[in-house]
Amino acid sequence: MKIIxxxxxxxxxxxxxxxxxIKQDKPDILLIQEIKTxxxxxxxxxxxxxxxxxxxxxxxSYNGVAIVxxxxxxxxxxxxxxxxxKQSRVITGEIKFKEKKIELINIYFPNGNPIDSDKxxxxxxxxxxxxxxxxxxxxxxxxxxxxxDFNIIPEENDVYDFKRYENDALGKLEIRKKFRExxxxxxxxxxxxxxxxxxxxxxxxxxxxxxxxxxxxxxDHFLVSTNLIEDITSININKKPRSKVKPSDHTPIELIIN
Length: 258
Description:
By secondary structure, the protein is α+β, with helices and mostly antiparallel strands. It has helices at about 15-25, 45-50, 120-140, 175-185, 190-195, 210-215; strands at about 1-5, 30-35, 55, 65-70, 75, 90-95, 100-110, 145-150, 185-190, 205, 215, 220-225, 230-235, 255.
């Protein structure tokens, strides 16, 4: 089973790229973020034509998450945390794998910049609530996969020039500590688990030739419950979609469960 996470940066603007990706790389489940559309304007029909159903938690112009799948997803929920700004940032659903019930938690964390604004305080408050909700969820189901755009650079090796980001909302120590707190609940950052020292990125800005210069960062992650680790065959950052015409500034991460 192939599960991908991808911040598509507007599902309607990237629909041709997404459909081409599905045709070529054949994922079973797409966890997509920053869809930037309300539920009623989501391109359900385009996905239905190729055998995929869509569960959407949208918002006008900003944010938004969706689970697009050819596998049956049960128990879809959109109330994982209480978001003070009522932003669409988390959608969850359950799949059966072997004898396990796995809960997929598709997230789009707040960016938090600039750090001297209310946006940074919102990010900190949001992260605190998210960690608290994960703790409660683990009591009910120890088989969790959290995936999406975390807007967090976990380690210095996860960005082309860490000095430029150590006082940014993506790289500040207190934010990175929150990521570590999540892991300590019983998760592995599965890309780093499989690739101890490798430097690869999932995001390249549109500006200043960042893609061409490989000025990127790894801010899109899969966190997997430790008791699911033996079921993970591979994790791959697929850079091909970032090189397409009119791409998202993020590229897909592909998790294969055997």
